Amino acid sequence: MLRFVSSDKLKFFDLKTIILFSFLVASSLSWGQCQDTSVLDNPVMIPFLTQMVANLTNDLGQEISNRSSFCVEDPSDDWNRAFNFSSNMDFLIDCMQKNNGDIGQKLCTVAEVKFYFNYLMEVSLSSNYLKPNRNCNLTTWVPGCEPGWACGLGANEAVDIREANIIPERTQSCGTCCQGFFCPRGLTCMIPCPLGSYCPLATLNTATGLCEPYTYQLPPGQTNHTCGGANMWADVGRSHDIFCPSGSYCPTTVQSHPCGSGRFCRMGSTSEKPCYKLVSCDANSSTQNIKTYGILLIVVVITMLFIIYSCSDQLISIQTRRQAKSREVAAKRARETARARQRWNAAKDAAKRHIIEISGSFSHRHNSVDSEESSILKQESRPSVDDSALSPIHQAGSVPRQSTGNKKEQIVKDIHSRSQIFKYAYSQLEMEKERALENGNSINISGVISMATNPGVIKRPLIEVSFKDLTLILKGKNKHLLRCITGTLKPGRITAVMGPSGAGKTSFLSALAGKAMGCSMTGVIMINGKKESIHSYKKITGFVPQDDIVHGNLTVGENLWFSATCRLAANMPKAEKVLIVERVVQSLGLQSVRDSLVGTVEKRGISGGQRKRVNVGLEMVMEPSLLILDEPTSGLDSSSSQLLMRALRHEALEGVNICMVVHQPSYALFQMFNDLILLARGGFIVYHGPVKNVEEYFSGIGINVPDRVNPPDHFIDFLEGIIMTPGTSTGVIHSELPIRWMIHNGFAVPPDMRADARALLSNETALAATAAGISAVNMGTAEQSFAGDLWQDVRSTMERQRDKLRLNFFKSEDLSNRTTPNLLAQYRYFLGRIGKQRLRDAKAQAVDFLILLLAGASLGTLAKASDESFGATGYTYTIIAVSLLCKVAALRSFSLDKLQHWRESASGMSTLAYFLAKDTIDHFNTVIKPMVYLAMFYFFTTPRSTFLDNYIVLLCLVYCVTGIGYVLAIFFEASAAQLWSVLLPVIMTLVATRPKTGFVKMLSNFCYPKWALEAFVIANAKKYYGVWLITRCGALMKSNYDIRDFNTCIMVIIFTGIISRIIAYFGLLIFQKK
Known about the structure:
49% of the residues lie in helices and 8% in strands. It is an alpha/beta fold. Strand 9 and strand 10 (273-274) form a beta hairpin. One of its GO terms (molecular function) is ATP binding. Its main location: membrane.
């Protein structure tokens, strides 16, 4: 096996295959040592010798493969490239003539060649001396021991070239080494130089005393000694003088020709290589300047990206304009149809009044008038030509009358074109407005009142939420967020949850929505009188968070439409979905900003009030049966709040159960609520009932609202302790209100409030009744030690993670009776949405490409490809730079819209579809970024490996680090993720490039830079052959690389990318906003 010593030793190995091949050459050249050697003077025998060498090489191919397989992928091909002299054997003929045909007398045996290569492993870099041997030692030092010289055997002696153990005695007929061979110092035999080397006879430079082109000197005191042949073949760092020089090519080991114009010759070349077109190569060029191709590639990539982004942006803009135009035309036509219908109704009413006026005078025509009136009414009931294709709205979950439902549903399904869809939607909206006006409603939105009184249509599924003794305790802190909450939320009503800060309003909504993570909950929550999980109704439950979590780089219409397509029934026709979205847009007053971007922190979009209404609209478009809103009116002015409330009131008229937290609403807004839940500090309820009865209840306990004071403001100020009731002995204090509410409704009173309850009771009977209902729960909070507090925190954290896992991985039974789009459909919807978002972030993408371009140019200029290390230094910098830049870019994929996804996943959207769509869109960057980087780096460094090999490795590397970037973006906050993105590539590359010993070797196997660097080096090393064979094997052995592992490295990098994506996906499921 081949082994390397420390850095101060020669980086070499025991090439048994070289030894064997040297034996093959030697044996072939000494063929007939027991025969008449004069036949070797005949050139006709050369082909026979060549064929013998080839046959012997094939016979020993398996042994060659076994002993040097780590650096020789194809033994036959590599050995032919190094030692196939069949194309020109002139140097052999010259050597035979020089030695009178007895060339075998001076060729090294296997034992001598083995001695030479074994010793090279042990000497330091500064030593040029072999160990003493039989022929060259302290007592015997013949001229053939000097570099470039060799000796033969005695006159009647013969040598067995196959001898692998004993060095023969060579001390006779010493002379210079033949050209095309090299003779090491300390050995008295010759070894053939490999192809790609230049081994002429040396000439003495009298000025320096060196035998040029080599670096050895003549022995002192020996005036008859002359310069001989080459003296060493080793790695390029040790024996660069026998390598065919750069700018020249060596067709044989004794010929060197300068490269012609239009061609280039790298170091160790055996032939000229033509330069590419559009590239000018001067004479004696060692490389071709292919920067022009890099510039052309950059131009092509930039042009392609410009076309993609520009055309896509134009297509989106054109599509938006066409939709807006179709919408305007449809709305205009619907309004004209509505006005025509109004004129017809007015004319019909005037005719009816005229008939009534003359009916007294012409009583004999009464029957005919009735008949005419009946005919007019029948004509009215028939739809007009414009409205013949329009059917009344289907609500999600609605069941039309059996007699006409199938026909109407088929009509809606037959509507496909954009103009027909908008015509249908706006005609329905105009008809609903008319019905609303006929019912005495002047609100300019959907005519749900007429539907509420229409027995032919069943509304959305009704959800009634009741809760009893609901108590919420923060785990680890033993702090009550809610306590003894009892009540009911009824469908078709809007319930306002109010109270001072810290009263548990948001906690109450979270408990109802099943989002109270990290808390222990006691009590009962029932859905429609049954003890069922609210998650079973997730598809028809809407939750509007306090923060406006919407996609800022989408328009208002795109946000609403995406929510509708993913959350409405999959079998609902597109026309119905468009109608629902248009109705929500009109009801929330968002018509003017429908095609405007919502905006982000960096880029201004719509106003804060409009953004708040979009936040609510995302839940309204999915037609929920239960709608929970956390402070939807915060930050809105009075008119915007009333507009939002009017929209919610009409949702309630359709049977929606609405519960919302509000902060000190105006009196007009307060009167729009149906019910009120008023919470006090500590999570106690002090009132739950109709809004119209709240003042009556509080006045009954001595809390009267002064004139010109808003009742909700007065109640909250009283709960805060800001105001007090007049009087000291009979006045009510705010801490008594929870107890008074419990006593008023006959609820159980907690033990720690028992004394206060007794003080409030006015008679023994009430005391006994109340005492009977007092709970026996011990509410004491004994003080814990530090270790106890620490254990409580750890346990609460573990329980919170367990709750998240249970929520995400253990799905509740779906009782909503709504089938939303499947995984494939949602993947398609996500793909379209994310594609639009990326096109609108084209500037950020362009910056990424520009930075990669500059990095490739900088590193390509500074880190030139080294022949000794096969460009390992430049590739190391490449791995660090590309990993850092691509990881930082990958962070944007999930860091920017993590909150939006958590909201969407909580509503039932597929996390897998979202993740796959993100990754699919990122594949565009995965394909383009390696090309952008290599367009500079490859054409500046000009390595011997092909552009395709480098692109494949870099493509897999970008895929891998993008997956790791996903993990960092999901598991860490933005600042920490960016820090890890910078540190990881550097640390892992340092580990991967350290000497592979013990634990470091094991650890490096888990570092992707190790496999990427190995793939780069192997791809480059395969292009080094001939005289480079020892250098290739030495470099691969030093780094513990195997030339056959290229595909393995690629697979490991891809596997790392896949594993990191799996981890990132599960992180999306597990980690939620704290």
